[in-house]
Amino acid sequence: MRRPIIAGNWKMNKTVAEARTLVTDLVTGLQAVHQVEKVLCPPFTDLMAVAEMLEGTDIYVGAQDLFWEVSGAYTGEISPLMVKEFCSYVIIGHSERRAYFGETDETVNRKVKAALTHQLIPIVCVGETLQENEAGKTEAVIQRQLIEGLKDVVIKSAAELIIAYEPVWAIGTGKAASGELANKIIRDSVRGTLAKLFGEVASQEIRILYGGSVTSKNAAEFFSQSDIDGALVGGASLKAEEFCLITQAAER
Prior knowledge:
The chain is an alpha/beta fold. The chain has a single domain, classed as Alpha-Beta Barrel (TIM Barrel). It is built from eleven helices and eight strands. An eight-stranded parallel β-sheet has the order 7-6-5-4-3-2-1-8. The mean pLDDT is 96.
């Protein structure tokens, strides 16, 4: 059985003071859920405060990105060692990083390897744009992103890697894919490609999340599917009650 996981991507939101308020509101509701892995991914400036507040709880901290070098003259970047001080997880290759900041399959690959080297669990994001979807290129895009993004990546166990399928056309638009459609893409395109990369057994053990306009109203539709193991939650992760309800839906 793959243990469900819900990760909240706060994106570029919340000052330290606001983060403290949100975590205070989240902790009680999240700690009542025991069968789901829970991860909060705040901005870099909030990591220390959030990690301190979550110490002694069963809620993990994740970063939203990292750079592949350990240190050096890379102004503005954050190294795996800096992330590891506070985090267990790191989001890599989010569509916003690809669209706005020049992230490529090659840089995703370098970041995944850096994360694994430093015992961070990468949440690797893949997904097609609206144009690619309408052109029937969904499977080809996902295969390319996985094959290139995970090129020469070695994992000792399936627990070291998480994939998030996030159709770009559904992120922040309110247009979530249907549970049935998301499950079919995850089962056929994502797990199918992972089987070629890591073998059939590992492909069935690696956890795959859905992301893109997940709310407490549609969460159960996704979590009832055979191949969806949780969610990477964006906007709804900024509302304590909403995020707790989504997490509770994953436990049910």
